Each structure stands twice: as structure tokens, then as C-alpha cells.
């Protein structure tokens, strides 16, 4: 077993791809906040592949985090010189690659002083984030939640911010004061209009205590929208054992499918790497790409994830092998989602659905239904409900999506159909579970404005939801699937 670090790269099996560039000569250009598996399998990999071509050596990544648990990841990665083993899982075989585009991880402190200092350096031209779609402090109307305790804290303590966004505002304030110019703020999360939402959060937070700074950021910084895509399971014992099969001792390996996509608006205020030379796409049609991906793939995960975990099915591939659930997936997608999705140069909506169906069915990817079902209180409003609204506006069916929402409500009661406990699987799990229990007898109690907005007042949706939830509690999820598919 070879412990992963710079000194041992030459000792790895020759079949394992590794950095061909001198990592000691790399210079930082990007701070990336949120060093989870997705970033290390996606954005970090695109930059690594540019570096393999002899390019972008002044764009290396400084990792960052703003929560206490990020310190543990920093320690793990520091022990292996910030290298990551990526393992591609394909039905035809597995392969491994060592990614070296991150060269340091900023120390994690409660006041985020090291992070603010790093982002204030003019060498940093991009600050990117993967903080999950629920991490942008949005209120029910999708504006900035200025009443959230974290936002109130950062507005009152701009020099000791608690959030990534407060730290970014503090760094931008320093850069403005030193006449250094802003950095580009780049969201890499699954949000439609993610750059626009990031602009709203940063500018809105700055405006709470320094309107002049907010105006400067709004006029001078850049917030490109983007669409990101790659299925990246969580790392557990199986993944740790898998990396050892390659003879590598890696405390933070990442597995991923053999598909990646990154579509980016070419709107940067301080330069950028040529990611397109590594396979990314620069396009002014990001919204069409992200609508296709969010509506078909991300909503597709919600169509199948809750019901599968409810029925005790562990992985997404096993879920797609279930005839009823796979039929639910295709029928809801074709009748209630695809009509609201536009074609992009590479795919028609139908062709993209076929692609997603193949990707979900990949038995080599052990992506769990629990991971897919996590944080439904953010994912359903962002991924599923927009298609319901579009369907209602167009006079098209929403019956299948109402069933999907009823299955989520049943899931949040906290017990599978075999009686086993569903461990908390949402940041708001306690409140969801309380509402789900009440909704057993009063389904309308589930349709709270904070999540559903005005949908509760739509008889076409609310009545269908009511009928499905009552049926699920009376006869079970299988009976509801049978009735829908009939």
C-alpha cells in the first residue's frame, strides 16, 4: 500500500494517471469554498486536466471551509499534500487518476480571518463555491433571508464573519479599499441562475451595513451562471476499500461516473482558466442547459429517491431496476417535465432523458437513495415544484408530480414501510417530521407556504396530493404506484 503524497507519486502503479506538472511551481489563482466530493471530482478535475496540458499553472486552488467540520477535511488532505484519488466507475471497468490542482487548504477559524486574508490577495482572481443548493440563505420568495441569524451576525460583525458570503464581502471591502479590483464570484451549485443568486446574496449582505460597497461589488465584480453535472457518491467504507484495491492509501478518495458536464457564462472580471480546452462549454445559453439538467436529472432523483428509500431500496441503480419505480420515473418525466424543457445544441429533451436513464442505471455507481433524498426541503422547491407550476400554467397534468410530493411527505414521517427508522435526512427534519405526522389525517398540513407558496391554493395540485397521500397511508406506496401507472 502506497500512502498518497507528492513524494510517492512515482511509486504508484503505472496504470494510474498522475500529475505530469511540477506541483511545486503552481501558483494560486482560485479560492474554492466547499471541498466536498463533487468539487474534487468536477471543477478541480477540469483545472487539473488543463495543467496536464501545461496550462493554467497560475490558477491553482486554495481550498477553504467555514464550518468546524471542514477542519477535519483540511487535516486529512494536508497529510497527503492535498492530492485526491478519483476513481471512475464504469460498467466496462474502473480506472484511477490522481488530481493535483489544489495546493493548500486555508486554516479554518470561527472568525474566518485566514479566509478573508487569502481572498484579499490580488493573486486570487476567482472565488468559487460548492455549498449546496440550500446554503444561500434564501427566504420563501427566493430573496435574501435578512432575518437569518447568520446573516444578521455578519451584517453586525463584518470583520468577523460567520458565513462564506460574509467572508467574501469582507475580502471585497479590503480589495476596494486598496484599489485592487474585485474577484469573480463563481457558484458551482445546483441552482437555476446560481450566479444571479450568488450576486443577490453577496450584494444584499453588503448592503445591510455598507451600501457604497454593495454598489461597487454590483458594478465591478462578476457572477457567472453555470451548470454543473457529474454523479459523485459519498465516500464510505466501500469507497475507502476500493482505493486500496489500487494500492493507494488515501483518506479522502472520490468515486464518480464516466460523465461530466460544465457549462459556464463567459463573464469574468479578472481573467479565467481556459476550461473549454479541458471539455467545459462557455455559452450564453446556460439557463437552457441548467433547466434541462435541474428539471430532468435533479428532479428525476427526487421522483425516485424518496419512494425507493421508503421501500428499503439502497442504491439508485437498484431503484432503476425496479419495474414500477423505473416506469414512474419515465412516465412522470415524459408527461410532466419534458414539455417544459428546451433543447440545447447537444441534446433534445428526449435524448437527454435517455442519457439520464442510462446514467442512473449504472450498476458500478453505488449512489444511495438516502444521499439523493437528503435535504428535500431545498431540493423539492428548486427541482420539482417549478415543473408543477409550469404544468398548471399550461393546463397540463401534474398528477405524477403530486404523487412524488406525497411520497416525500410519507418519507418524512421517519419510518419505512417495513417499520425501520429513517434517520434524520434534512436540515429541517424535525419540523418536516412533525408536519408529516399531522398530514396523515390532514394532507393539506404538508403544503406550507414556506415550501409550496401558492401551490396549496391550486385545486388541481392540492386535490391530487390529498388523494395520493391518503392512499399511500392506507394501502402503501406500491398501491399508489400501481394506480398511477394504470
TrEMBL record:
Segments forming domain Mannitol dehydrogenase N-terminal = 29-276
Residue intervals of the Mannitol dehydrogenase C-terminal domain: 286-465
Pfam families per the record?
Mannitol_dh, Mannitol_dh_C
> Can you tell which superkingdom this protein's organism belongs to?
Bacteria
Q: Which UniProt keywords apply?
A: Oxidoreductase
Q: Which Gene3D superfamilies match?
A: N-(1-d-carboxylethyl)-l-norvaline Dehydrogenase, domain 2, NAD(P)-binding Rossmann-like Domain
> Does the record bear Transmembrane in its keywords?
no
Picking any one GO molecular function of the record gives: oxidoreductase activity, acting on the CH-OH group of donors, NAD or NADP as acceptor
Q: What is this protein called?
A: Mannitol dehydrogenase family protein
**In which organism is this protein found?**
Paracoccus aestuariivivens
Amino acid at each position: 500500500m502506497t500512502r498518497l503524497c507528492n513524494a510517492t507519486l512515482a511509486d504508484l502503479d503505472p496504470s494510474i494517471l498522475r500529475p505530469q506538472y511540477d506541483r511545486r511551481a503552481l501558483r494560486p489563482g482560485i479560492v474554492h469554498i466547499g471541498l466536498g466530493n463533487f468539487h474534487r471530482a468536477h471543477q478541480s478535475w477540469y483545472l487539473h486536466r488543463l495543467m496536464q496540458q501545461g496550462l493554467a499553472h497560475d490558477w491553482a486552488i486554495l481550498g477553504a471551509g467555514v464550518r468546524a467540520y471542514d477542519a477535519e477535511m483540511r487535516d486529512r488532505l494536508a497529510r497527503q499534500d492535498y492530492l485526491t484519488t478519483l476513481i471512475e466507475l464504469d460498467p466496462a471497468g474502473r480506472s484511477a487518476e490522481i488530481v493535483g490542482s489544489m495546493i493548500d487548504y486555508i486554516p479554518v477559524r470561527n472568525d474566518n480571518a485566514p479566509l478573508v486574508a487569502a481572498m484579499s490577495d490580488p493573486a486570487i482572481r476567482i472565488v468559487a463555491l460548492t455549498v449546496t443548493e440550500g446554503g444561500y440563505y434564501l427566504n420563501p420568495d427566493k430573496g435574501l433571508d435578512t432575518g437569518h441569524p447568520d446573516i444578521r451576525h455578519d451584517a453586525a460583525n463584518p470583520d468577523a464573519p460567520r458565513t462564506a458570503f460574509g467572508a467574501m464581502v469582507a475580502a471585497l471591502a479590503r480589495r476596494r479599499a486598496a484599489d485592487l479590483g474585485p474577484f469573480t464570484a463563481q457558484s458551482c451549485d445546483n441552482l437555476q441562475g446560481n450566479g444571479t443568486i450568488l450576486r443577490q446574496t453577496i450584494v444584499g449582505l453588503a448592503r445591510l451595513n455598507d451600501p457604497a460597497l454593495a454598489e461597487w461589488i454590483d458594478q465591478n465584480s462578476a457572477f457567472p451562471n453555470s451548470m454543473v453535472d457529474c454523479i459523485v457518491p459519498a465516500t464510505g467504507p466501500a469507497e475507502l476499500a476500493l482505493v486500496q484495491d489500487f494500492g493507494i492509501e488515501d483518506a479522502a478518495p472520490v468515486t464518480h461516473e464516466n460523465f461530466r458536464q460544465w457549462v459556464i457564462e463567459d463573464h469574468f472580471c479578472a481573467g479565467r482558466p481556459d476550461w473549454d480546452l479541458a471539455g467545459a462549454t462557455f455559452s450564453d445559453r446556460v439557463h437552457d442547459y441548467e433547466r434541462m439538467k435541474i428539471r430532468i436529472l435533479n428532479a428525476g432523483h427526487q421522483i425516485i429517491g424518496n419512494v425507493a428509500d421508503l421501500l428499503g431500496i439502497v442504491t439508485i441503480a437498484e431503484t432503476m431496476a425496479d419495474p414500477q419505480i423505473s416506469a414512474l420515473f419515465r412516465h412522470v418525466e415524459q408527461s410532466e417535465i419534458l414539455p417544459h424543457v428546451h433543447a440545447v445544441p447537444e441534446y433534445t429533451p428526449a435524448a437527454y432523458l435517455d442519457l439520464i436513464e442510462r446514467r442512473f442505471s449504472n450498476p458500478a455507481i453505488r449512489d444511495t437513495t438516502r444521499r439523493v433524498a437528503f435535504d428535500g426541503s431545498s431540493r423539492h422547491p428548486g427541482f420539482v415544484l417549478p415543473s408543477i407550476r409550469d404544468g398548471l400554467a399550461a393546463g397540463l397534468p401534474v398528477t405524477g408530480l403530486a404523487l412524488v410530493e406525497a411520497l416525500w411527505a410519507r418519507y418524512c414521517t421517519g419510518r419505512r414501510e417495513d417499520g425501520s427508522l429513517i434517520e434524520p435526512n434534512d436540515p429541517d427534519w424535525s419540523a418536516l417530521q412533525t408536519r408529516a405526522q399531522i398530514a396523515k389525517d390532514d394532507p393539506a398540513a404538508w403544503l406550507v407556504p414556506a415550501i409550496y407558496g401558492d401551490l396549496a391554493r391550486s385545486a388541481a395540485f392540492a386535490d391530487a396530493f390529498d388523494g395520493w397521500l391518503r392512499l399511500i397511508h392506507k394501502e402503501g406506496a406500491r398501491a399508489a404506484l400501481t394506480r398511477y401507472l394504470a
